[in-house]
Automatic annotation (TrEMBL):
Residue span, FAD/NAD(P)-binding domain: 5-308
Gene3D superfamilies reported in the protein's UniProt record: FAD/NAD(P)-binding domain
This protein's name: FAD/NAD(P)-binding domain-containing protein
Molecular function terms from GO: oxidoreductase activity
Organism of origin: Vecturithrix granuli
SUPFAM superfamilies, A to Z: FAD/NAD(P)-binding domain
Keywords, sorted A to Z: Oxidoreductase
Length: 364
C-alpha cells in the first residue's frame, strides 16, 4: 500500500499543472497515467496557443508540454506511466494496475481527476472500414509517431480540431480533399480556417457523410446536403475519392472514475454531456475528490491548465499547506485567469461561462 497526500489521475495539461501547484505548496504528489509518455494532448499540438502571455500565447503546445515536464522533474513529483486506475473506494483508496500485469493500491488524502476526454464517433454506412478514424488519432499518428494515415483525406467537422488537424495533415504531406460541416456555418477560429482555405481546401457546410465506400478500406466518401431541419436532401449526393476519413465531431468527458467514486452529475450538452458537479475550488460532491480539464467540461488546453492549477492549489490548501489568506489570493488569481480565457471579444461573459454555473452546482 502506497500513501500520498495528493494523487492525480491523468498526466495531461490539467494533471501536470495540478501536480506542479500542489507540489510547489509542499505536498508529496503522485501522478498516474495509462499512457507510456506523459504530457497528454500537448505533444500533438504543434500549433501556437492564443490568449495572453500568461496563457502561453505564441508558444507551441509541444514546448508547453516540455516545460511542464521539466517543472515536474524539478519538484520530484512521482509519475507512474502505463498504469491504469481501475477503481476508487469511499476511503479514497485506488486500485492501480501497472503494465497490465501488477496490481497495487494507493491511499490518497486528496484525489484530482484529470482524465480528459474521448473522441466522438459518427455512425454512417461504412464507418467501420479501415481508414475511418478520429481526427485526434490522425494527429497522434503524424505529430507523435510520424506516420501519415492516408494520402487523400476528408475531414468531417470544421471546428478548431478539424481545421487545425487538416492543416497539419497538409504539412505532413497529405492532400485534404474537403472539410465537411453539418451546420450551416463554420465552427473554427478564423485564423485556422483561413489558413486551410488559402491552401485551396473546399468547405461543404450543411453537408454530412452519407456513407463511406470501399471493399477492405476507404476508397471514397459520399456526401449529402442537409436541409434546415438537418435532414438529408435526396438528389444532392456527391462522391469524393479519398482513402481516409477523419472525424472531428466533438469530445465526451471521460467520467467513469467520477461515477465510481460516487460524484453527483449534471448534464450540459454544450460542455460535452454528463459532468461531475463541482464547486469553485474544483471539488466534487465526493469530499476530497477534485476535477480539472475536460472531465469538468470540454474547452481548450489553456483552460485545462488553469483548472489544474486551481485544483492543485485547492487540494494543497485543504491539506493545510496554505493559510486561508494565501489560498484565497491564489484561488482568486486562478479564477481571474479562467474568466479572462472565457471572455468574448468585448469582455462579455461567453455562454460557456454561464453553463459553468450549472457544473458548479449553481443556477443560471
Amino acid at each position: 500500500m502506497y500513501n500520498y497526500p495528493v494523487v492525480i489521475i491523468g498526466a495531461g495539461p490539467a494533471g501536470l499543472s495540478a501536480a506542479i501547484e500542489a507540489a510547489s505548496a509542499g505536498a508529496k504528489v503522485l501522478v498516474i497515467d495509462e499512457n507510456d509518455k506523459p504530457g497528454g494532448q500537448l505533444f500533438k499540438q504543434i500549433h501556437k496557443f492564443f490568449g495572453s502571455r500568461e496563457h502561453k500565447a505564441g508558444i507551441r503546445g509541444i514546448r508547453i508540454g516540455n516545460t511542464l515536464l521539466e517543472e515536474t522533474a524539478k519538484l520530484n513529483i512521482d509519475v507512474w506511466l502505463n498504469a491504469e486506475v481501475c477503481s476508487i473506494d469511499p476511503h479514497k483508496t485506488l486500485w492501480v494496475v501497472k503494465d497490465k500485469a501488477t496490481s497495487t493500491y494507493v491511499k490518497a488524502e486528496k484525489i484530482i481527476l484529470a482524465t480528459g476526454a474521448t473522441e466522438n464517433a459518427v455512425h454512417f454506412p461504412g464507418w467501420t472500414l479501415p481508414g475511418v478514424m478520429g481526427a485526434g488519432a490522425a494527429q497522434t499518428m503524424i505529430n507523435i509517431h510520424r506516420v501519415l494515415p492516408g494520402k487523400n483525406v476528408l475531414m468531417l467537422g470544421s471546428g478548431n480540431v478539424g481545421v487545425i488537424v487538416s492543416y497539419q495533415l497538409m504539412q505532413a504531406g497529405a492532400d485534404v480533399a474537403a472539410i465537411v460541416e453539418a451546420a450551416p456555418q463554420l465552427g473554427g477560429y478564423g485564423v485556422h480556417t483561413a489558413k486551410v482555405c488559402r491552401a485551396g481546401v473546399p468547405f461543404y457546410t450543411s453537408h454530412t457523410i452519407a456513407r463511406a465506400m470501399g471493399v477492405d478500406h476507404v476508397e471514397a466518401a459520399e456526401l449529402v446536403q442537409l436541409d434546415a431541419q438537418w435532414n438529408p436532401m435526396p438528389g444532392t449526393e456527391k462522391t469524393i475519392a479519398v482513402d481516409t476519413i477523419c472525424l472531428a465531431t466533438g469530445l465526451t468527458p471521460l467520467v467513469e472514475l467520477a461515477w465510481i467514486a460516487g460524484c453527483q452529475f449534471t448534464f450540459i450538452p454544450q460542455l460535452g454531456g454528463h459532468l461531475p458537479i463541482h464547486n469553485e475550488f474544483m471539488e466534487t460532491t465526493a469530499p476530497g475528490i477534485y476535477v480539472a480539464g475536460d472531465i469538468s467540461g470540454i474547452e481548450e488546453a489553456s483552460t485545462a491548465m488553469e483548472e489544474g492549477r486551481l485544483a492543485g492549489i485547492s487540494a494543497a490548501a485543504a491539506l493545510g499547506y496554505y493559510d486561508k489568506t494565501t489560498s484565497a489570493t491564489l484561488v482568486k488569481q486562478a479564477w481571474n485567469r479562467l474568466d479572462a480565457l472565457r471572455c468574448g471579444e468585448f469582455g462579455e461573459t461567453r455562454k460557456i461561462s454561464k453553463d459553468r454555473l450549472v457544473a458548479l452546482g449553481k443556477e443560471h
